[in-house]
Design brief:
The structure is a single chain. By secondary structure, the chain is of the alpha/beta class. It has 4 domains: 2-110 and 394-439, Rossmann fold, CATH 3.40.50; 112-200, no CATH class; 256-390, Fumarase C, Chain B, domain 1 (Orthogonal Bundle); 445-655, P-loop containing nucleotide triphosphate hydrolases (Rossmann fold), CATH 3.40.50. It has an 8-stranded parallel beta sheet with strand order 1-12-2-11-6-3-5-4, sandwiched between helices. The longest helix has 22 residues, at 342-363. Iron/sulfur cluster binds at residues 122-125, 179, 184-186, 189, 191-192, 195, 197-198.
Length: 657
């Protein structure tokens, strides 16, 4: 693998001066700071846009990467897509950053914000469900909320639920008034002409600059590949921010599956079985053989691990899948001779998908011999068995999708590298030829941040570990004039910590993930300083709390993904069979990136200070700990908890308003 790191100076960004000490942006932003790294990133983005090449860029916190890609993108002209991993960043770009840069550059442009359909009220479902809505347990409160919701739905232009005046945190409540691809009736819907999802997509197709998320972007690529439709127009540049989220998301989206319930549905279709039985092609099994094949799959024991890779499939399972695939192919041929309407078109499309997946799954016997090919798995879940085709890495599939576009690609994030290299990200994304750049944060971590790993705590797997970790947390919280995040790697540990901490914090508010929306919890966390927030995965990233409101981040253990997660288990098994070391090649770099995200919550501004405590002794006692340490910002290492307490107390007093 080679990286093309150009040393050429690109003067495009220098004339006129956009990001310099006395540049155009400095005149309009009160808190503008000249950053040499920001200018280097802007140069690299400019070059990638001009050369239509691929740039992988890590820019540490405080570099100002948003302006470093927005200004070149707008100056470059043409059409662009900016994709992010979180809705918060989408909203910030669309509502604040893009209008500002567009104004400063004097470049008016048509912009569109395209979110997933679960973010827009579905008028059909709202109309059908409104009297049944699970709005609130109390009748009076419910009536009030319903009136507010009615009047918002009546007046909204975008239908975007983030603008709704009432909080809709309950997933069931939310799902009652939003659509899915499965329950949306499309053109048959009586509200189609007024539909907010349709309107957002129409605006995106006409815009010069579209802000969207990675999920929709990948959906668009997959839809194009299938030739069904497209969500986004042809563009000249893709800017993928929060790009560290792409490999896992793309792996999930490029994986395909057939569920037991879907097969059941086909076999229960009397019209289809009658049509099938009316023909008598040689080599096509009778309908009863299809039912028998399904029964064989149904009756197979899942075994202890609940997952079987194709090499482990007994002959009768493979034969059953082959029978179903052959039968479905014959059924599709017979259906092609019958009239089709919109409803039957969807059912046929599903049947085609199932036939394709089953046929492919039985053809692949040794996936590692076919680089880039997905691995077939049989998995047993609560809802029944699943036949799954899943890539080990999304790279080769993604490259195929990317090659459809004649565009520049900028993939950026604050944490893409492990041990100072971008190879993990590039390998997973199959980016053999690209330009890469790592720009360190301009913040003075050594002076502003401490890192403490208490070697006096028990081993993380010891029964008394959590108790000891929480006792330490309570002592440090007491000496901390600012706010504290306690970040856990599991919901179980979070629940135990909550039970132990509740009632021990005096007047400090205790906020717990899941008790309100993330947005509301963060709002309270900042308003009610010094608060303590207990969070698991969703608070490890995409959270930006500045100042004294957050000066202590405590992490219970190194964030290795659990092999009990089916996806993690499949990846480990696949890598082993490919002769690779799953720990070195995947689990370790992934955990390093996750820890960097968690640690990255602490210092969000150059005047921020604070301490990070990682309770897991493996960070300093295991040889792999050095990879974590080499990847973290250069914080000063604290020797004991008194040093941490004094540091927090001293800086906290100075920071008090
Ligand atoms: S077209 Fe689909 S999303 Fe739009 S209102 Fe109708 S059912 Fe809802």
């Amino acid at each position: 693998m080679t990286a093309t790191v150009s040393r050429r100076s690109w003067v495009f960004m220098r004339e006129p001066d956009y990001l310099g000490c006395n540049g155009i942006l400095s005149a309009v932003l009160d808190d503008f700071q000249y950053r040499e790294g920001q200018n280097r990133l802007a140069d690299a983005v400019t070059r990638a846009l001009h050369e239509k090449s691929i740039l992988v860029a890590e820019a540490g916190t405080g570099v100002g990467k948003t302006y470093a890609y927005l200004i070149p993108t707008l100056l470059n002209g043409g059409r662009s897509v900016i994709s992010t991993g979180t809705i918060a960043l989408q909203d910030q770009l669309y509502e604040r950053d893009i209008p500002l840069v567009s104004r400063v550059l004097g470049k008016p442009l048509r912009t569109a914000l395209l979110k997933g359909r679960a973010n827009y009220v579905c008028l059909l479902r709202y109309e059908t469900e409104r009297t049944q809505l699970r709005l609130s347990p109390k009748a009076r409160e419910r009536e009030k909320r319903r009136r507010l919701l009615d009047s918002w739905v009546e007046g909204t232009i975008s239908g975007d639920l983030s603008e709704c005046p009432i909080e809709l945190n309950d997933p069931i409540e939310r799902s009652q008034i939003t659509s899915t691809a499965e329950n949306c009736t499309g053109r048959r819907c009586p509200f189609y002409e007024r539909c907010f999802v349709v309107e957002a997509r129409r605006q995106a197709l006409e815009a010069d600059l579209i802000v969207t998320n990675h999920h929709l972007l990948l959906s668009d690529w997959l839809l194009r590949q299938d030739g069904f439709s497209q969500l986004l127009p042809e563009v000249d540049a893709f800017i993928l921010d929060e790009a560290h989220l792409l490999p896992d998301l793309a792996t999930r989206m490029l994986s395909e599956s057939v569920r037991q319930t879907e097969l059941e549905h086909v076999l229960a279709n009397r019209a289809w079985s009658a049509l099938f039985n009316a023909g008598s092609d040689s080599g096509v099994p009778p309908w009863e053989a299809l039912e028998q094949a399904f029964t064989t799959l149904l009756g197979h024991e899942s075994g202890q691990r609940g997952q079987l890779v194709c090499e482990e499939w007994p002959a009768r399972l493979r034969e059953s899948m082959a029978t179903l695939a052959t039968g479905f192919k014959a059924l599709l041929e017979r259906l092609s001779e019958t009239p089709e309407d919109e409803a039957s078109r969807d059912a046929r499309r599903n049947l085609e998908r199932m036939e394709r997946i089953l046929s492919k799954a039985v053809r692949i016997r040794h996936p590692e011999l076919e680089p880039g090919s997905p691995w077939p798995w049989l998995e047993w879940l609560e809802g029944g068995f699943v036949v799954r085709l899943e890539p080990v890495d999304p790279g080769s599939g993604l490259r195929t999708l990317m090659q459809v576009h004649d565009a520049a690609w900028v993939m950026t994030s604050a944490s893409l590298s492990t041990g100072g290299h971008l190879s993990y990200f590039r390998n997973r994304m199959a980016l053999a030829e690209c330009e890469e750049i790592i720009i360190q944060s301009p913040f003075d971590y050594a002076a502003h941040a401490l890192l403490y790993t208490p070697t006096t705590l028990p081993d993380v797997d010891a029964p008394d570990y959590l108790e000891a970790f929480i006792a330490l947390a309570l002592r440090l919280i007491e000496s901390n004039p600012g706010g504290t995040f306690l970040l856990f790697t599991s919901h179980r540990a979070l629940a135990m910590a909550q039970a132990r901490i509740a009632g021990s914090l005096g007047s400090r508010p205790l906020l717990v993930q899941g008790h309100a929306s993330k947005y509301r919890l963060l709002e309270r966390f900042q308003e009610e300083t010094p608060a303590v927030l207990l969070g698991s995965h969703s608070f490890w990233e995409g959270v930006d709390v500045k100042g004294l409101a957050l000066s202590l981040v405590m992490i219970d253990r190194l964030p290795f993904a659990s092999p009990s997660d089916p996806l993690v288990y499949r990846r480990i098994e696949a890598l082993k069979r490919m002769g690779r070391d799953p720990f070195r090649d995947d689990q370790l770099p992934k955990a390093v990136l996750a820890l960097r995200q968690g640690v990255g919550r602490l210092v969000r501004h150059e005047s921020d200070f604070g301490a990070v405590v990682v309770g897991d002794r493996r960070l300093v006692e295991r040889s792999y700990g050095s990879v974590f340490l080499a990847s973290l910002p250069p914080m000063t290492r604290a020797q004991d908890e008194h040093e941490v307490a004094e540091f927090l107390s001293h800086h906290g007093q100075m920071a008090r308003p």
